[in-house]
Design a protein that fits this description.
The protein is 83% helix and 0% strand.
Length: 430
């Protein structure tokens, strides 16, 4: 009933509908770009490296602009930010249509789209408390989180079929329409004027603020640990996105447009399942224990994905291209990775919240996304190139082994503490 009452609040319904459209559009766009760039550069034997450049175009703006964007948004009318951000993304989506054969322009448009998104995200999050009653705030945030994961599934699963049915232009036309509708919904929101009284926008001291926030993060052992694990899991997501086209060809022998339902969609469904499962496990296990167990499970899963092709040939004796069982195996493994990712993310984020005082929480989370993206961006550039030079399956095996070693070292250091932390002390807030 709380969900129904929340959705019935008109202004929240507008904002939530705009979020649904924007999120689906963004994921549809992201996956369409991955397919487009891989197909555009496959003949050069550097398809995975080119995809890594696309992923970098997504992530670099969050590193460069996210901290400052959040500060500036507090000084602007957030309704206008939402409106102009969606309007700009609509125009950029249309520009893709006339640039489908130009890799440089595609990367530039992707960079610009991601830059605009850095302003949209904090404006959207800050608007939620203004359009919903305080007693329904938790429910509203839950709806937004659920929409985030569901949009991932919908956007990524729809992209391949849309490309097959309508051609390369199809996803970009659909994206432009959804961003356009989100623009109209944003225009119908009530004004969200700034609350601060300063006449001039502050000049963000980005470097000093980042240093200060990093010192806060490191001042608590559990918080620092949680942030590092969020960086690791986010890096795995970026890596899998980068390698998805090559992986579909290497294991399933079909383009990603045909294999997306077995490679990408299970990850999204796993993320949703992980969100549900963590609520059950959190009552029985400490958050650190969940994180450690998931890291070990994720490492074995990556190794199995890399070895699946050869193992299936050996056991079954059939040519890889003619086997249907491998499709099921890959889908299950991808689902497990999705579960692991969301459980680590949810546990780590909650641990950061619990170990951070209210006066420092904004500072910590203001730089958290940037820190995570920096750590996740570096390996993307490398694995894309390695996948082209050696093989995507070998890269996954190596990554899985490295993650396993990392998880074992963490378990050795934090294992006992993780098992007893919830029994001996409450988290210290700093």
């Amino acid at each position: 009933m709380d969900y129904i009452r929340t959705i019935r609040q008109v202004n929240f319904a507008k904002l939530w509908s705009a979020q649904i459209l924007s999120q689906v559009a963004q994921y549809l766009l992201n996956f369409a770009l991955i397919i487009l760039v891989y197909d555009l550069t496959a003949g050069s034997k550097f398809g995975s490296f080119s995809v890594s450049l696309v992923v970098l175009s997504f992530s670099i703006p969050s590193i460069l602009f996210a901290p400052a964007a959040g500060t500036y948004v507090d000084y602007w009318d957030r309704k206008k930010v939402l409106f102009y951000a969606n309007l700009t993304r609509t125009v950029l989506a249309l520009l893709y249509i006339v640039s489908l054969d130009n890799l440089f322009v595609i990367l530039l448009l992707t960079f610009l789209t991601s830059t605009v998104t850095q302003f949209f995200v904090p404006a959207e999050a800050s608007t939620i408390p203004k359009v919903v009653d305080k007693k329904h705030l938790l429910t509203a945030n839950s709806l937004f989180v659920f929409t985030l994961y569901t949009s991932f599934v919908v956007g990524y699963s729809a992209s391949g079929p849309v490309v097959k049915l309508l051609g390369q232009e199809g996803p970009f036309i659909a994206t432009a329409l959804m961003f356009g509708l989100a623009t109209i919904l944003a225009a119908w929101l009530p004004p969200q004027p700034r609350e601060k009284t300063a006449e001039k926008l502050p000049r963000p001291q980005v470097l000093s603020q980042i240093k200060h926030n990093w010192e806060i993060i490191r001042s608590n052992k559990d918080r620092y640990y949680a942030v590092m694990q969020m960086a690791v899991t986010q890096g795995m997501v970026f890596i899998l996105i980068t390698l998805a086209p090559a992986l579909s060809l290497a294991l399933l022998k079909v383009p990603l447009t045909e294999a997306s339902h077995f490679i990408v969609v299970p990850v999204g469904l796993g993320m949703i399942s992980g969100v549900i499962l963590i609520n059950y496990l959190s009552k029985r296990l400490s958050k650190l224990t969940v994180i450690q167990a998931c890291l070990i499970a994720g490492s074995f899963t990556l190794i199995m994905i890399g070895l699946t092709g050869q193992l299936y040939r050996t056991v079954n004796g059939d040519p890889l291209a003619t086997t249907g069982g491998i499709t099921i195996i890959i889908a299950v493994l991808m689902f497990i990775l999705g579960v692991v990712n969301s459980m680590v993310s949810a546990s780590a984020q909650t641990l950061v919240q619990e170990t951070t005082s209210d006066e420092n929480r904004g500072k910590v989370f203001g730089s958290l996304n940037m820190i995570v993206n920096i750590a996740a961006t570096i390996p993307v550039f490398v694995v894309g190139l390695l996948a082209d030079l050696i093989s995507v399956t070998k890269v996954l095996v190596v990554l899985g082994v490295l993650l396993l070693v990392y998880a074992i070292l963490l378990f050795w250091r934090y294992g006992f503490f993780a098992r007893v932390v919830n029994k001996i002390q409450r988290p210290t807030k700093i």
